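Minutes, methods subgroup
Present: GH (chair), OT, SY

1. OT presented the first of two proteins processed in the latest run. Sequence and structure tokens recorded below as shown on screen.
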Amino acid sequence: MKATILYLSIFLYSIACFGQSLTGNQLLEKAISYHDPSHRWETFKDSLFITMETPNSANRNSTIHLDLVNEYFYIKATRDTVSTEYTLNKSACSIAFNGNKNPSDEVKKTHKLSCERAKMFKNYYTYLYGLPMKLKDPGTIIDPKIQRKKFNQKDYLVLKATYEKAIGKDTWYFYFDPQSYAMEVYQFFHDEVKNDGEYILLTKEEIIHDIKMPKIRAWYMNKDDKYLGKDILKRSF
């Protein structure tokens, strides 16, 4: 029994020391090797089906088509009886509302439909479902020193990322399992001193285009742990 405890202690100590010896970029490479072992993200061409559940609101079902090589993005989002569609084909943008491919200016204003919003959706979904690979994008600043933190009673290796001013002002932390390097939590702050922003818990996985993506992303406020909602990734509706 004593020998078992000794071996376990040595094993845990070795994991801790190994985590401390990794640099930020080395941890990122190990995480990418886990999530995208075949390096498929850069040529991603597939579909995502996402249900967003939020308290006191009807679900929103989104069908997304991505073709990164050809710079193509399409999303159709449906909530209740309302559907919006955005298509970005390189620099070309098109909008549809409830099937109407030429909605009036009044409809666009009422429902906040714009090509800027289309770009926002593209950036949002390609960033969050392209993690951790997207952390290699130009303008991302990876802290060379990794941290060890406990979150929800579990120990993690934590990577800090900030961005050049032209890219973004938020500070992000990414929590990786110290043995598998799977990404299980990420967190961002607008102003870390104020403890604002949110944290996102990632559970289960969906393999799409040979990439391990989070099946469920549950969002919470940093300051009071308020539950905001969750996104559920599916192969189809």
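2. SY then presented the second protein from the same run.
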Amino acid sequence: MLTAVKRRLHYGWVIFVLSFSNLTVEGGSKNVQSVFLVALRDHFQSSVALTAAVFSASGLFGAFVAPLLGMMLDRFGPRVLFPVAGCFILAGWLASSMVSEVWQLFIFYSVIATVGQVGISSFSATATLAPWFPRSRGVALGMADAGNPAGQAIVVPLAQLIVSTIGWQWAFRIFGVVFFILVAVPNLLFQKRPPEDWQVDKPAIPYSPEEASSQSVPAETTSEDEATSLSSVGEVLREPAVWLLLSARAVNSVGNHMIMVHILAFLFLAGYGEIQAALAIGIAGLLGIGGRPATGLLSDIFGREIVYTTGMTMSVAAVVLVLFFGEGGTEWVLVLFVALNGFSDGISGLLIGAKAADLYPPRMLGRVMGMMEVGRGIGIGLGPILAGLLFDLQGDYFLAFLISAVLTTASVFIMWAVRLTGRSRNLSSR
């Protein structure tokens, strides 16, 4: 019995737990920005645009550093990269808690902490976890990515409570230490490089070469000759599918971060209380814990593009709902927004990452996903500051949220273009 159980399990499930933990940290550190935006704006008496620029600068720097981190992931492995990332998070967050001027945050948060946060983000989790589950990577990545909304559900309300009671400085300190412990220690002890062989989904580990060779390769995976030809960054940059995936990630990320960083400020202006709004965002995160695994599973069955289209339709509906009916603190609007946002938030990165893993082999997936993270970094860089500037000019978030909905819709068309390019690419490689 015990032998049979061991044969049905493999080390990929340890990597799954580590990925879930890393993404919980990412979800907490990313979504708590909306809490810090209001607290830092009030403390330093700065404009919305300037305060949001701290998080925008983080995104832009992350866009530049992500390809380098992807190459480091391929070269040194996750057991080295992830603990180092935890150290950067600790240093950046502790230093951020001691700043006396806004500009200092551009160094400690936007640069130092960002290196750590990008290092353990969804791109590196996809590159690390996807090779362990080639037949069910959508559901595996979806379950792991549930850590992202779990972090949102836990950290956002707790951070708002800490900020409201003992100040934003202590929020930086407490979460900096907690994030370090969650990232550095378990990854140093248990992390492993992903397998070069894509057939790890079914057999036990270790498995024999005969068992490995008897398994079939998924239809959208790349041939060995092509994997070799794509071993350099230059070859990756000449891939049309990479640029389309990057574009889809960037366009969607700009729209998403125009809302995400400013959502609490918007809800406060709409008449909702601080704790009420923070709890609503936390509950949306709880819904995402179930939504992302379901999204991954459905994408394995029906295809990445169909599920992506459905999810982005829900996201646009959430924005339109809160934009046109959210004034006055109406509870039913908040409830529907939480439901739609909770089930759709974050699935863009999940499905784009899964699509990239469908097309490219493990030996270069760190570099490919690093390129995807450039798109996400562009969104984090442009979204918050663009929404902040529009707010400072107009006094409300109407135009910013409307542009967000348009960009989210545009990303759907780009995702379908990836499918056409990916098919042509696979056919031409045979």
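Chair's summary of item 2: Residues 191 and 370 are 19 Å apart (CA to CA).
Next meeting: continue with the remaining queue.
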